[in-house]
Write a structure and sequence with these properties.
This protein has 208 residues and is α/β, with parallel strands linked by helices. It is built from five helices and eleven strands, in the order βαβαβαβαβββββαββ. It has one domain: Rossmann fold (3-Layer(aba) Sandwich). The strands form three sheets. It has a seven-stranded mixed sheet, covered by helices on one side. It binds 5-O-phosphono-beta-D-ribofuranosylamine.
Length: 208
Amino acid sequence: MLRAVVMVSGGGTNLQAIIDAIDSGKITNTSIEAVISNKKDAYALERAKNHGIEGVCVSPKDFTTRVEFEEELVTTIDKFNPDLIILAGYLVIIPSVLVNKYPNKIINIHPSLIPSFCGMGYYGLKVHEGVLERGNKVTGATVHFVDEGADTGPIIMQKAVEVKFDDTPEVLQRRVMEEAEWNILPQVIDLIANDKVRVHGRRVEILD
Ligand code: GRF
């Protein structure tokens, strides 16, 4: 059984997609040991509670230095002895000590087709005065392993999503979540839980 810890900062719709996929059998061989948030009021913690999953808040605001926060974060994660750490909308930079301790055991969902649009604008598409500036026709989502860089780890799975002419950022965000994020994140967890993911340096092979 894959022991997963899910890290969150907000509403937790990706967490919900994982919980639902476990309940429906789309994800097999996996248990969520804990949900860890950097924000006390993250609705994701409510979702965890509603499903009988332990929720823990480790907030940088409760520590005087970054180092103390990071130490507490690592200690908290270690307690659950995870096989996989899932960043599901976790908006905190992951300490390198954690990355080094869990090589190829931390995955992240990113709301664009990495490496396009990394660090740019809203949802990977640059917004100017409320409209998508360049008229991009395609965006999507990526699940990747986390290394020490920002969104630079090996890519595991991606899904493209159409951008429509009159999309607002909110409409597009919803479509990316519905069509891509809530599908590929559970799929990747199931593949990892069933030993179907191999990392060859910077490339990832999915076994049939
Ligand atoms: C997701 O779009 C994720 O890709 C991004 O933040 C959002 C989190 O949403 N980094 P939720 O908390 O899972 O609802």
